[in-house]
Specification:
- 4 copies of one chain form a homotetramer.
- Chain A has 378 residues and is α/β, with parallel strands linked by helices.
- Chain A has 2 domains: 132 residues, NAD(P)-binding Rossmann-like Domain (Rossmann fold, 3-Layer(aba) Sandwich); 200 residues, Dihydrodipicolinate Reductase, domain 2.
- Chain A has 10 helices and 17 strands.
- In chain A, the strands form 3 sheets. Chain A has a 9-stranded mixed beta sheet. Chain A has a 6-stranded parallel beta sheet with strand order 3-2-1-4-5-6, sandwiched between helices.
- The longest helix of chain A is centred in the C-terminal third of the chain and has 20 residues.
- Chain A starts with 6 loop residues before the first strand and ends with a strand.
- Chains in contact: A-B, A-C, A-D, B-C, B-D, C-D.
- The interface between A and C is medium-sized, with 23 and 23 residues.
Chain lengths: 378, 378, 378, 378
C-alpha cells in the first residue's frame, strides 16, 4: 500500500474548461502512470460557491475553498494548480511560491512581462518546482517531432511555419466572456493561441530574436454576458507575425478565432536541410515526416500514427492505432510533473519558459504599435 | 450527496486490455456524464493473484476475487462486467444472469451460436439488463453516421464496404497468445474484428441475409508464449466475405491482422441513392459525408470533425476540435448502460445483437467450408 | 528530318471518349517522347458521317472512313487502333490482324472468352504487335508500385484489395447508352471497371486462380436514348468478388457505378510481409507506401508524389510537383507501343493479358450464377 | 474548313520549361476548345541555334529565329508569346507592342516597377491585347474558388493565407542557373513564386495596401553552371510577408525553395465570415470548401473534385474524376486569350495586373530593407 510519503495534496484554482481537464488528469494519472508521487485531490477553489461545490463533487475533490489566498496558505497542500483566468496567474503564483508550494500554472504565464518576471523571481526564491501548462508538448506526435529533430533527422532547421486557427468567434453573437476582455485575459487570440505556437517553436527550433506583427479585431462590439446590452471588444481576433530565430531560421506565425471550419487547428510545419515535419492538432495522433535520406524514388511525407510503444507516453496508454485524445495530454503533463516533484528536479516547461514566451508576445504587441521589427528583450 | 439507492456495485472479470479500458470508464463516467446510477468499483476478478492485486490497486478496485463463480454469486454486486477471454463469455454470462445480475459483456458474444443462444435464453429468463461491448457504436462520428442515415441523408442504402485491418501479426515472432488460439478465442481476426464490422453494418444498414467467404492463415506456426518451442496456428489471420442484406444492399467485408501500416483501421464506406459516408477509426473524430443534395458545383466529401456539441456524447467532453480518444468510447458506453439500468430499460446493443452477430460469423465460417453462399440462420 | 521509314500511318475506329483520348495521345506523343516511330494520324473511322468529319477535323485526322472493314483493308495503314464499342473489338481486331496490321485495342478485350481466344489466335498467326489499352499501368504512380514490388519492398504479397467506384449511374434518368446494354458492352461495371482492377492485380500480384462473386442491378429500368420510353437494364450496376491468387494471396474486388461522390475512384491496396501500397486514381500523382524497414518510431504511409524524374515516364513531362493528368496515361501508352513496333518487340499488356483478364471476368459471371467458387480456366 | 481569317500566326520566345508548356498548349488548344481564332505555330525564337532547331521540330514550330528583335518585327505574326527569362520581358514586350502584336507574357511581369510601367504604357498606346501568364487562375479548382467567392459563399473575406513551397534548391549542389541570379531573374523565390500568390490574392480578395516582409538566402554560394568554380547567390531563397488588403482583410504570404518534400506546393486558404476555402496545387483537381450554411451537425471541409462539367474549363476535357494536369492550365489560358483576340476584348490577367503585382513585389523588397511596413504604391 502507498504511504503518505508517496502522496501529495493538491489544491486547484478554477473549475471551468481547464479545471475540468486538470481534474480529470489528477483522477487518472495514477492508473496509467504509477508516478512516484500520487496526487490527492484535496481542495478545489473558485468564487461561486454553489457551482464550485457541484464541480468538486463531480470531479472528485474532497473540499472546496472560495478564497484563493486562504487556499495557498493551507499547510496541508503540497501543490497548487492555477487554472483560473489569466489575470489571477501572477498574484496566485507569487503567493503560492511564497507559501512554499510547488506550482502548476496554466498558460499564458501572465498578462505582462513585468508580472512574469516577478513570478520567476518568486519561484526562484522559494526553490519550488514550477511548470507552465503548455500541454501540446505532451502530445505524443509532438514529442516524436522533438525526438526526430534531436536525432538530426531534419538537419539544420530553416523554417517554422505555425498557424493556430479556431472559429468560435465567427458569430457576432458570442458574448464578451473573460477570454475576450483585455482586463481578464491580457490579449485575445494572441496570448491564448500564439502563446502555444511560440512555446512549440522555442522548444523545437530555439529562441526568437526579433519579430514584426499585425493584429486585427474584426468584430468590434459584442453582447455583454449578462444580457445588459453590448460592449466594445478590446482584444485581438487575429494576430500574425514574422520572426527571426537566433539560429537564423525564419518563422511565420498566425492565429485567428475567425477561420470557419478550423476548430482547434494548431498546426506547424518545420523545414530543415534534410527533412520536414508537419503536425496539426485536429489529427493529434499523426505526425508527418519527410526525409531526404529516403531513396530518391520512394520519398514522401510519411503519416506516422504516433500510437506505438516507441512513441512518447504511449506505452502507458493503448495498443497501436487505438488513438488518444486531448485530455490525455494533461495526464501526460501531470505525470511528468509529479515525478519531477518526487525527484526534486526541475519541471519543463517552467516559469523561465513562460517568461521567455511572454517576452515574445510582448515584442509582437510592441511591433503592432510601432509598425516595425522589434527585438525580443533578453 | 449520493445515497446507496443511486449506486451500483460492479464486479469485473478480466484485467488486461479490456479490463483496463473498462476500469477507466467506470472511474471516469460519473465525472463526465452524471449517470442516474453511479458505479462502485467493487471487485476485480482474475486467475493470477499477484497480477490481479496489482491491477486492482492501479485501477481502483476495492477487492479482488480469483474465482469467477464466487464473484457472480456475491449478493452485493449489481452489475457483472465480463471482459475476460472469449471462452469464458458463455459460462460467466449464464451464471451472472442466473444470479440476477445485470451484464456488460465484451464482444464477440461467444465462441459458438449455441452458446450465444443459451446466453440469450438466460438473460431473458432472468429479466436483467444486458449489453454487448460493441464500443464503436459509441464513437461520436459513428453515432453521427447513424443519425444521418436515419434522417434520410443517404436515401436508400445500396453498399456497405467494411474493412478492419491491423498489422500486429505481421511478424512471425508474435507468440501464440490466447487471441490466436481456437480453444480460447473461437476464431482469429474473424471473431475479433469482423464481429465489429458486422455490428456496425447491422446497426447502420440492417440484417444480413446470406454470405460467402474465404479465410486464410498465412503464418501457420508461432512460438509458444512460455518459450517451449512453437505450435500450429489454428485460427484465421484474415477473413473476407461478400454479403447480401435483407434490404437488397450489398456488403463486402474484409479483415486481416497482416496489413503493414494499418494499426486499427476499422473503416466503412456506405453508399446510398443520395449520399455516401466514410469512417476510419484511426481518424475516429472524423466522418466523411457526401450529399447529392449539395449544389452541383459544390459537392464533395465533407470531413466533419465530430467534436461539436451537436454530435453524440460530445457535450460531455471538450470544446470543438479538442478531439477525444479510444478510451472515451467505453465511457460513453458505460454511461448509457448505467442509465438503462437506472431506468429499467433495455440496453443496446444487447445479447440479441450479439447472437445475430454470432450467426453471421458462423454462416461465414460454414461458407468457408462449403465454398458456397450460406444463409444466415434466423 | 524524319523519313517515311520512321513513320507509321494510323487508322482509328471510334471518336467518342476513347477516340478523343487516343487522338490526343497520337498528336502529342512525338513532342514529349521522341518515339523511334512517329505516328501519322491518317484515317478516323466511325458510322455517323457528319459527326465523324467534325471529330476528324477537330482531332487532326487527315481522312475519314465510315466502314471499318474498308479501313482495316487499306494498304497504307500500319497500325489499327480499335477504340469503338466492345462488341466491335473481336471482328475488328481479327480483321486487322488478318490484314497484317499492328493493333491497339481498348479494353475490355471482348465480350466473351471465345472471342478473346479467336483474337489471340489471329494476332499470333499474323505475327503483328498487339496491345490492350489497360492504360492505368501507365500511370507513373502505378509504375512505381510495380517497381517497388519488383524490388521486394513489400516482401511476400498477401492481400490485394481493389475497388473501382463511380457514380454516374446514380440518377435513374441516365439513359440506356451503349455502355449499359449487354448487346453492345457485354456487361456493365464488371467488364468496364473490374477489368481494369483485374489487370492491375494480375500485373502487380499474379494470376488469379479462383473466384466467387455477386452482382446487382439496382436500377432496373432506364429511359431509351432516343426518348421513346424506357427499357430494362440487362447489365450489372455493381459486381464484387473474392479471389485467390496462385501465389496464395487473397484478393477482394468491388466495382459499382452507384457510389455518390466517387467519380473515378480506381483504388487498390496491397499488403505484403514487409510493406503496403495504396493507390487511388482520383489522386493519380500519389502513391502511398509503408515499409516495415523504416525505423520503428518513424514508420508511416508515405505519400510519394510520383512526379520526380526517377518515376516512370516523368522525365518526359514536367518538373517535380507539376502534376500530370488522365490523358497523359495514353501518351505514355502509345509511346511504348510505337517503340515496340519500331523494335519488333512484343507490347504489354497484350492480347494474352486481355484473354486472361476475360477469363477472370467470365469466371466471376459463372460464379454469380452458380453461387459458388469457380476456377479461372487456364 | 477554316480560312485564314480564323487563324493567327504565333511567334514565341523561349523553348525551355515555359516554352515547352506553351508549345503544348498551342498544339492542343484547337482540339479541346475550338477557339474562334486558331493558332499557327509559326516561329520559335531562341539564342542557341542547334537546341532551338531541335525544340522547334519536337514541338512543331514551322520556323526558327535567333534574334528576338527580328522576330517581333515580322509582318506575318499576330501574337508574340514571351516565355524567355525575366530580364527579356520588358524589352521584348515593348518592342512587340510597338510592332502592333498581341502579347502573351510569362510572369513575373518584369524585374522592376519602372519596366512594368513602361510595358503598360506601350501596350496601351498600341491598343493590342495583352495577357500575363498567371496560369494558376486557369486551374478549374481555382476558378471554382473565384465563383464561390463571387456568389458570396464566403461572406466577407477576412484572411488570405498563402504559401508557395518548393524544394529544388535544398541541395547546395544545384548550380547558379538564370532563375537564381538577380541579373537575369530580378529576384529569387519572391518574384517567381510570391508573384503567383499575389496574383491569386489580388484576384480572389482584392488589392493589397501595405506589406512588411523578410527575406533570406540560406545557401549563399553555389557552383557556376559552366563548372568554373562557384559564385555568390544574390537572390532570396525564401521571402515571407504580412499584408493588409484595402478591404481590411489580413494576408500572410510565404515562399521558399528549401522546404523538403514540397514540390510545387502552391497553397492558399481563405477565411470569410461564412466559409473557408483551401487549395493546394499538388492536388490541383481538388478544392476544399467549408460553409457555415450547412446544418450544424453536418459541417465540414468538402473536398470538391473539380472535374465536373459545372466546373470551369472541364466541359472541354474529360468525364468526372478523370483528373487533368499542370499542362492543361496553359491550354485553358491560351484558349481564353485566343477568344479575346478574336473578339477584340481585353484579356485577363493583363499588364495592369502584372504591374500591380510588381508593385507589391517591390513594396515587400523595400520593406525588407527598411524593416517596416511599406505602402504599395498606387
Amino acid at each position: 500500500m502507498l504511504g503518505w510519503e508517496d502522496m501529495i495534496n493538491v489544491g486547484m484554482i478554477g473549475y471551468q474548461f481547464m479545471g475540468k481537464a486538470h481534474s480529470h488528469a489528477f483522477k487518472d494519472v495514477a492508473m496509467f502512470f504509477q508516478p512516484r508521487l500520487q496526487p490527492v485531490m484535496k481542495v478545489l477553489c473558485g468564487r461561486t460557491e454553489d457551482r464550485l461545490r457541484e464541480a468538486a463533487q463531480l470531479y472528485g475533490w474532497e473540499e472546496t475553498e472560495t478564497d484563493w489566498q486562504r487556499l495557498v496558505a493551507r499547510d496541508d497542500l503540497g501543490l497548487i494548480d492555477i487554472a483560473g483566468p489569466n489575470w489571477l496567474h501572477a498574484p496566485a503564483a507569487i503567493a503560492a511560491a511564497e507559501a512554499g508550494k510547488h506550482i502548476l500554472l496554466e498558460k499564458p504565464m501572465a498578462t505582462s512581462v513585468e508580472d512574469a518576471e516577478r513570478m520567476v523571481a518568486a519561484v526562484e526564491r522559494a526553490g519550488v518546482v514550477h511548470m507552465v501548462g503548455f500541454n501540446y508538448r505532451r502530445v505524443p506526435a509532438v514529442g516524436l517531432a522533438k525526438r526526430l529533430i534531436n536525432e538530426g533527422a531534419l538537419g539544420e532547421v530553416r523554417h517554422f511555419r505555425g498557424t493556430y486557427l479556431q472559429d468560435w468567434l465567427v458569430s457576432p453573437d458570442v458574448p464578451l466572456v473573460w477570454k475576450i476582455r483585455r482586463e481578464t485575459a491580457g490579449s485575445g487570440a494572441h496570448g491564448d493561441l500564439n502563446a502555444h505556437q511560440i512555446d512549440l517553436a522555442r522548444w523545437l527550433v530555439g529562441e526568437i530574436e526579433s519579430v514584426v506583427g499585425m493584429s486585427e479585431t474584426f468584430i468590434r462590439e459584442r453582447p455583454l454576458p449578462d444580457g445588459s446590452g453590448s460592449g466594445p471588444v478590446d482584444v485581438d481576433d487575429a494576430t500574425a507575425f514574422l520572426a527571426r530565430f537566433r539560429t537564423g531560421a525564419l518563422g511565420t506565425f498566425e492565429t485567428t478565432r475567425l477561420a470557419p471550419g478550423r476548430k482547434n487547428y494548431n498546426r506547424f510545419e518545420i523545414n530543415g536541410s534534410e527533412g520536414s515535419l508537419v503536425f496539426n492538432f485536429e489529427r493529434m495522433n499523426e505526425l508527418q515526416f519527410y526525409s531526404t535520406q529516403d531513396p530518391a524514388h520512394a520519398r514522401g511525407f510519411r503519416t506516422i500514427l504516433a500510437t506505438e510503444s516507441d512513441h512518447p507516453y504511449i506505452s502507458h496508454w493503448w495498443p497501436p492505432g487505438h488513438v488518444i485524445g486531448y485530455e490525455q495530454t494533461f495526464v501526460n503533463e501531470i505525470a511528468d510533473l509529479l515525478d519531477c516533484i518526487a525527484d526534486g528536479k526541475p519541471a519543463w516547461p517552467d516559469f523561465h519558459d513562460g517568461l521567455a514566451n511572454q517576452r515574445v508576445l510582448a515584442a509582437v504587441e510592441r511591433s503592432v504599435e510601432t509598425g516595425r521589427w522589434e527585438q525580443v528583450s533578453a
